[in-house]
Amino acid sequence: MTPEGKSLLNIFILGFGFMFMFTAFQTCGNVEQTVIKSYNSTEFHGSGYTSMSIIYGVFSASNLIAPSVVAVVGPQLSMFFSGLLYSGYIAMFIHPFTWSFYTASVLVGIGAAVLWTAQGNLLTINSTDSTIGRNSGIFWALLQFSLFFGNLYIYFAWHGKVTITDKDRQTVFISLTVISLVGSFLFFLIQRPEPEVLPAEVPESPVPAENSDSSSVAVAPRGLWSQALEAFKKALQLSVTKEMLLLSISIGYTGLELTFYSGVYGTCVGAMTQFGEDAKGLIGLSGIFIGIGEILGGGVFGMLNKDNKFGRNPVVLLGLVTHYLAFYLIFLNIASDAPMAPEEGTHMQAFMTPSVQVALLCSFLLGLGDSCFNTQLLSIVGYIFHDDSAPAFAVFKFVQSITAAVAFFYSNYLLLHWQLLIMVGVGFLGTLTFFAAEWQVTSRRQDSDYDSI
């Protein structure tokens, strides 16, 4: 197999591993608030929104040390052990306690930081400047199949159910735990890319060959600590570069809308009593339509980025327009108190007769718009910071996760229309700053082409 073929195979394996893991985790996040409302136990007093806020808060803080972990342990083992923490969080729902719920939330937050930093590292070292856009799209499309399969299962398992019983909960979460474990073990199939496929040696390579005092794979503890410290310092340096500061607002926006489509919107749909007895099952169907939008966007926009003829700005602008349309329709269709409605749901009505078709259309638009932003952000971060991919993606996830944590926290208290208004404002600013970053990249590339003549 050619070096390029091996690298492409690695991208597919990476995508399938994440697909299995997040089939379990994203389905868990989509239904957990609904499950908790239906769980009748004096031993449990948890909130799904609070749990997600803890996860993303810890996730954000842990990104400061994640590059050091990946540098020392290597991306494969980093992703495997992080995947085990995800599986533990999902398994906790089989018989939840308040203490185990929030403890698992902290642990999966740490695991998430390491997992996504390692993912960004592997995506970049298996890509070149000409393939980073394509590979980002392939990875994103495979990852978002997780929304399709997990939520399809939820739709058929909970179709017509008004209350989720203990047996329903246990069956779902045992299945999801096994699925997440499969994803973790797939990471062992990823092979180290051959050096000639890379335009330059990548400093954060998992094999610390650059230590001149070591002639073998084994590295002295001092070398490991030095490597970890350098990765940490590099992450701090990258966080204050002009390019990263410009991108941070659009990255932060993806954290806000991640919270909305992955945890809040499904809860809102399930709380709409005017959708009838199938409202709980519609949580799964909504997730499927989000997944269809994500898959379509990841595939199409990843391929458009292959030669980068039109740049990234048109795709990001399409994402903003798509999200604005979704937000407007949600505002008209979903009751304002739906995010905080009790188990029996909300009897309030928004500004139009509630429509299941409009709700599912909004799900599709949320997924499509999200893929527009994320594929382009993965592409531009991987392009600008190719030689420092692990620290760069750690900063990426730091910003994204801290805004997601804030959003999950305020989801406990803010009515739906206020949540939508926040996303409208941040999305607009994030699009403008992304444009500025992309224009800088384009200008730099043109200057480089001119100098090479």
Report on this structure.
With 453 residues, the protein is mostly helical. The chain has 14 helices and no strands. It has helices spanning 3-38, 48-62, 66-73, 75-92, 98-125, 132-158, 166-186, 221-239, 242-271, 279-304, 313-333, 356-384, 389-410, 416-451. α2 runs antiparallel to α13 (389-410) and α4 (75-92) packs antiparallel against α7. The longest helix has 36 residues, at 3-38. Mean pLDDT is 81; it is low at 196-222.
Summarize the structure.
This protein is mainly α and 453 residues long.
Overall shape: globular
Number of helices: 14
The topology string of helices and strands comes to HHHHHHHHHHHHHH
User: Which regions are unreliable across 5 or more consecutive residues at pLDDT < 50?
Assistant: 196-222
Oligomer: single chain
Number of strands: 0
Provide the helix percentage: over 70%
The end-to-end distance, rounded to whole angstroms, is: 34 Å
- Average pLDDT, rounded to a whole number, is 81
Largest sheet: none
Determine Rg (CA atoms, Å): 22 Å
How much strand content do the residues show? under 5%
The structural class is: mainly alpha
How are the SSEs placed, and which strands pair?
Elements: H1 3-38, H2 48-62, H3 66-73, H4 75-92, H5 98-125, H6 132-158, H7 166-186, H8 221-239, H9 242-271, H10 279-304, H11 313-333, H12 356-384, H13 389-410, H14 416-451
Helix pairs in contact: 1-4, 1-6, 1-7, 1-9, 1-10, 2-5, 2-13, 3-4, 3-5, 3-8, 4-5, 4-7, 5-13, 6-10, 6-12, 8-13, 9-10, 9-12, 9-13, 9-14, 10-12, 11-12, 11-14
